[in-house]
Design a protein that fits this description.
Helix content is 17%, strand content 33%. It contains two helices and seven strands. A seven-stranded mixed β-sheet has the order 4-3-2-1-5-6-7, covered by helices on one side. Strand 2 and strand 3 form a beta hairpin. The longest helix is centred in the middle third of the chain and has 24 residues. The chain is globular and about 65 Å long.
Length: 162
């Protein structure tokens, strides 16, 4: 009857992030459209402990996850602001105050990255978290130096030395 068909869509892509003797880490990016102005995308991690064969959370790599997130936060906020400046150019304030704050790292997707040993951490940020939809998601890489001393003993050998 003249009304345009707007089909639904779902896509998911998996990416290997790290493989070490103790860990396998993957990230997933999904896109879905169920109607409306545009679709949406998001990230999710999968980290496996090879010795137990079980999925673990990023925070499970550390003796104290809260301290690890706190130690990473300064580097996270600095790297995010650099990525924002690259996307936005000179006018960082144009998108409004809400998208200039540093969202809590603990609420983002964080995955270890490396082959044989983890040598960095990748933070994957969904649209609308660090910027408006038009900016898309963000991928920020962090060094592991700040959290290396906080790793559980079972995982410490899988992280590259400083």
């Amino acid at each position: 009857d003249g009304f345009p068909f707007r089909g639904n869509d779902f896509q998911q892509q998996w990416k290997p992030e790290a493989e070490t003797p103790a860990l396998i880490a993957l990230s997933s990016q999904t896109y879905s459209f169920t109607g409306g102005a545009h679709g949406n995308m998001g990230y999710s991690p999968v980290i496996f402990d090879r010795s137990t064969g079980k999925r673990i959370a990023f925070g499970d790599l550390f003796a104290n996850a809260d301290q690890a997130y706190q130690a990473l936060t300064p580097a996270w906020c600095k790297a995010l602001n650099e990525a924002r400046a690259e996307k936005r150019g000179a006018d960082m304030q144009a998108v409004g105050e809400m998208f200039n704050e540093c969202p809590p790292l603990k609420e983002q997707t964080v995955v270890p990255v490396g082959e044989g040993r983890v040598d960095q951490l990748r933070v994957l940020v969904d649209p609308y978290v660090a910027g408006p939809w038009a900016e898309g998601g963000y991928e920020v890489t962090l060094p592991v130096d700040a959290v290396r001393p906080m790793l559980k003993t079972v995982y410490a050998k899988d992280f590259a030395p400083s």
